[in-house]
Amino acid sequence: MEKMVTSFWTDRQVYVTGASGLLGSHLVLALVEQGANVVCLMRDEVSQSHFTRLGLRDKVVIVRGCLEDYPLLERSINEHEIDTVFHLGAQTIVGTANRNPLSTWDANVRGTYQLLEACRRNDKKVSRIVVASSDKAYGDQDILPYEEDAPLIGRFPYDCSKSCTDLISISYFKSYQTPVCITRCGNLFGAGDLNWNRIIPGTIRSVLRGEAPIIRSDGKFVRDYFYVEDAVDSYLKLAEQLENPGIVGEAFNFSDEKPMNVLELADTVISLMDRPDLKPVVLDQAQNEIREQFLSAAKARKLLTDWSPRFGLEEGLRRTISWYKEILS
């Protein structure tokens, strides 16, 4: 499928936090290909990350440090004359948050308000900010699918950190007119995800090894699964239209709008890989997770010009499986 390319990003100064993560690496690649000058805030260097595999280190400016270092944020945004910020940096793993909530809140909550404050202090240059939140920000609610005006009631450590991320972002817009938008996606998947605890990479690796996939929950948890290149398209489109009426200061759900439970997803992967003999092993060990979460993307379809997922779930899974076959062969 043809990539979405515009002249909007040519020579634009763009700051990306969380650049070495799954979404970050794909977003940085798209920005570089479209001519942006990208500055990446990076804490840890992961030699096997997709960012490294793509050879992006030599195509961007790297600022070494973390979101908790406010002087570094303000200095780097100022000195690199940043126009656009994509704030993807966060502690993203539910299990890690359960084990150590303080580091999660430090990165996700303090990191967000410090980044937004650095942008506010450089408001003569920074003209658009996209903050990555999550469907987890909604917490556990009875009305599904989640729409953007649902209350933010995250209770568990990771969910709570994302509720806070959203509220802080909205506060900066309402209080200081900071030009920020919020994105809430379903569970992202795609090439470059080496977190084998996640259901899609873990299942694909198990099948490639001829092993039964492991499901740590009871298999009945329902989620959205959103292909990473569709997420990149969504982030770019939102940023490009952020100055349009009704966009700035808003939150947007991005979803394929095809929720399924974990067992259904595993079975889909197994079917696409043509290994019907491999049956998932269900451990039923998940804790502090919401049973059903999925999103309505009606607002994005209504307000963002020409927005819709370009690939969708099954094509995204096919492309993802192909990538894992190549790197694990």
Quick one: how many beta strands? Answer: 13
User: H/E series, N to C?
Assistant: EHEHEHEHHEHEEHEEEHEEHEHH
The low-pLDDT segments are none
Specify the CATH architecture.
3-Layer(aba) Sandwich
Cα separation of the termini: 25 Å
Mean pLDDT metric: 94
Note the total helix count.
11
CATH topology: Rossmann fold
Shape: globular
Class inferred from helices and paired strands: alpha/beta
Largest sheet: 7 strands, parallel
Please outline the helices and strands.
Layout: E1 13-17, H1 22-33, E2 37-42, H2 50-53, E3 61-64, H3 70-79, E4 84-87, H4 94-99, H5 101-121, E5 128-132, H6 157-176, E6 180-185, E7 187-189, H7 199-208, E8 214-215, E9 222-223, E10 225-227, H8 228-240, E11 251-254, E12 260-261, H9 262-272, E13 281-282, H10 298-303, H11 313-328
Helix pairs in contact: 1-8, 3-5, 5-6, 7-9, 7-11
How would you sum up this structure, described in words?
The protein has helices at 22-33, 50-53, 70-79, 94-99, 101-121, 157-176, 199-208, 228-240, 262-272, 298-303, 313-328; strands at 13-17, 37-42, 61-64, 84-87, 128-132, 180-185, 187-189, 214-215, 222-223, 225-227, 251-254, 260-261, 281-282. The strands form four sheets. Strands 3-2-1-4-5-6-11 form a seven-stranded parallel sheet, sandwiched between helices. It has a two-stranded parallel sheet with strand order 7-10. It has a two-stranded parallel ribbon with strand order 8-13. The protein has a single domain (10-192, 225-258, 293-311), classed as NAD(P)-binding Rossmann-like Domain (Rossmann fold). By secondary structure, it is an alpha/beta fold. Helix 1 (22-33) crosses helix 8 and helix 5 (101-121) packs parallel to helix 6 (157-176).
